[in-house]
Amino acid sequence: MSQIELESVSSSSKRTGIPIDRFYNLVREGILPPGVVVRLGRQIRIHPGRLDQFIEGGGKALPGGWRREAR
Predict the structure, then answer these.
(1) What is the pLDDT of residues 7-56, one digit of tens each?
(2) How many Å separate Cα 18 from the centre of its chain?
(3) 60 and 31 Cβ atoms separated by less than 8 Å
(4) Crossing angle between the packed helical segments 20-28 and 9-16, to the nearest 10 degrees
(5) Bridge partners of 7?
(6) Which residues of the chain form beta strands (DSSP E)?
(7) CA-wise closest residue to 40 among 63, 11, 71, 9
(8) pTM of the model
(9) What is the tens place of the pLDDT at every residue in 26-39?
(10) How far apart, in Å, are the Cα atoms of 31 and each of 4, 11, 14, 57, 62?
(11) Inter-residue contact 40 to 4 (CB < 8 Å)
């Protein structure tokens, strides 16, 4: 069985240049898909290869676009 290398949100944040609090918001809001985000109990890990594919594929827009309504 091959070993999958997962990285912390902090590492992914630094690697992509996205602030860590914004990265957690992307996870919480479901913008990053389940294949990218791996939850291990209360821990959140990121699959770096799938994150790169997600970004290269154009990502995903926020629901409602830039005029997103307040919750």
Answers:
(1) 999 999 999 999 999 999 999 988 898 899 999 899 999 999 999 999 99
(2) 10
(3) yes
(4) 110
(5) 46
(6) 7-8, 37-40, 43-46
(7) 9
(8) 0.78
(9) 999 888 988 999 99
(10) 22, 18, 18, 14, 7
(11) no
